[in-house]
Task: structure prediction
Amino acid sequence: MKLLFDLHTHTMASGHAYSTLQENIAAAARAGLEAYGFSDHTSGLPGAPHNIWFDNFKVIPRQIEGLRILRGAEVNVLDFEGHYDLEESIAKKLDYLIASLHSHTYVSGTRQQNTQALLKAMESPYIKIIGHPDDDRYPVDTDQLARAAAEMGVLLELNNSSLKPGCTRINGPANARQMLLDCMRHGTRVVVNTDSHISYDVGRFAEAIRLLEEVRFPQELLANLDLARLDWITRPRG
Ligand SMILES: [Zn+2]
Ligand SMILES: [Zn+2]
Result:
């Protein structure tokens, strides 16, 4: 299985990642990717860049080392109403937003409340991907999430970092597996990302590929198999 892009990656700008944009792109090229997206954390997390950092992406070329370059951000969902920490004037200039629950910016509620937080976040047309909905620190109902994502044209993320031993997320592999089964039932589109915080992980999807093969995930729902499917993520929603 050949995955052509990685859209959830962090650079040093995130404050707890260790490679530059240039190093990540070089790694993406070495891994044989055809597109690369960076998605640094937004302002709620300690050490994350000020909004002005996201506001100047116009200086970054659209094509580097033969790769198509996409400009994203991983926003923090803040509450059960799905508010997140990036203003619309900046969000609308980016190619995509990934919405995620993180410990510094979100206090977990019940499974239903956490699910509602993500469902509400999906109502924002800038949210294209729900990041790592696979963590029992913030349990979510992936069946409900997959059904709504399919209806709303949002992709759920199969996060390769969640599948690795030593990941701080809880029960990532089992939850990711359940999420894929729910996506298969509802016809929900999935994107595989590494969530790399250092260039050595960019474009390395071994654990995710193993899981996709194990559940026989249908090719027509998997974004990364076709460069044209970047449209699923970059085109305006709603
Ligand atoms: Zn995250
Ligand atoms: Zn991330």
